[in-house]
Fold this sequence. Notes:
Low-confidence stretches: none
CATH topology of the domain at 14-73 and 169-186 and 193-327: BirA Bifunctional Protein, domain 2
Bound molecules: adenosine-5'-triphosphate
Radius of gyration: 26 Å
Amino acid sequence: MSEALTEYQGPATMEKITSLAKRRGFVFQSSEIYGGQNGAWDYGPLGIELKNRIAQAWWKEMTRLNDNIAGLDAAILMHPRTWEASGHVENFTDPLVDCKKCKTRFRADMISEENLAAKKCPECGGELTDTRKFNLMFKTHIGPTEDNAGTIYLRPETAQGIYVNYKNVIQSSRMKIPFGIAQIGKAFRNEIVTKNFIFRTCEFEQMEMQFFVKPGSDVEWFNEWKKRRWAYYEKLGVKMERLRWHQHGPDELAHYAKDAYDIQYLFPMGWRELEGVHNRTDYDLTRHIEFSGKDLQYIDQDNNNERYIPYIIETSAGLTRTLLMLLCDSYDEEQVLPDKKPGTEASEGALDIRTVLRFHPSIAPVTAAVLPLMKKDGLAELAQDIRNELKEDFAVDYDQAGAIGRRYRRQDEAGTPFCVTVDYQSKDDGTVTLRFRDSMEQVRLPRQSLSERLRKEIKEYKRIK
Length: 465
Ligand code: ATP
């Protein structure tokens, strides 16, 4: 295992990431023409592809590669009693202070103890208000009247949708403990401080898996899921020295948790939580039994119908936060010579800085871009024909605008791992040039073997930098 770094070393800054994300259509500010909406972001053409790819990779890892994990998609709006049972109405709060002078709002647990004790604003030195509790759930009304009877919440986590359905899943799919339920979906939190781009937003997406186990085997399964989730990031090609475990101390532990570890990632602004692995014990199911009056005990038919309330191990990752992590992790700048023109021996021109996103090819929004060297002499038609052939199996882009070197750089910045260039020789002998994003190397190969080669390259991909 590589040693975790102590501080961020790399070319990315949040400003560069935010600006690239906008420029290339990954992420836009929500309602930008009205000045933007705090805590909300829109995913553009490349962003939605990337988000979908991350979700698919997680889904495959959790459901398809695990025989004992089933999927679910529960509604965002749940019966309000759910949130009383879960403890969110009472406990899902952040401590909040305001500066009386500059009006900045802070989470009290995010400013230094000295400042808090002295009631001194860390921004302007003004006086701070007393700390008060602020519930993070978005409350709205269902039905035509805005009275308390119609109060309903936007879910602050996807987990509860899984707990209230766990018996339905057992009954409909013959699951036996130990087993898990996976879900990807939106969650909403009225966050006090939303900075650092999409890191902490009011509307976001989670990828959660709840694993139901027999009490007593929970510690073992907790350790097992810690191991598996760590290995997952390695598989995604993440720089492992930028990951570390952080165990929750007694002050941080959520009201439902017996033990909790976060996988933290070293973002340009420092170490921050990426995913939590929690031992939620039988807290949630016990509370739902209490509040719903339904028997949610598990009946172990292989063991004399023994009844018990399962313990739950949760792995909870932010989908949109993972997207930000992957943008930061894959971002690179390097000084290079221009790409050589297909068909020539050496590159010509001066050293230049290129920006490149080194996404794993299975995650990259565009897998391959097809580029005709020239528009004329039938090269564009040939390139489009190749694009049409590849697009059944791969996410393919087509670009014929501008000098070939500039087009390679555009694809680098979008994180496209492969470019297929069509030149005059392609017309004569049916070969094309395959150019690799990371090494900028080029190989010539027959058009017919492109698909197979791409599949092989994706499967055997190793990050070189
Ligand atoms: P924090 O203490 O940073 O507010 P948390 O410990 O409350 O976060 P969890 O409730 O464990 O977070 O949520 C699980 C995962 O969901 C987090 O690891 C993170 O990836 C994601 N997440 C939580 N809140 C947000 C948010 N406001 N915006 C984006 N992602 C979030």
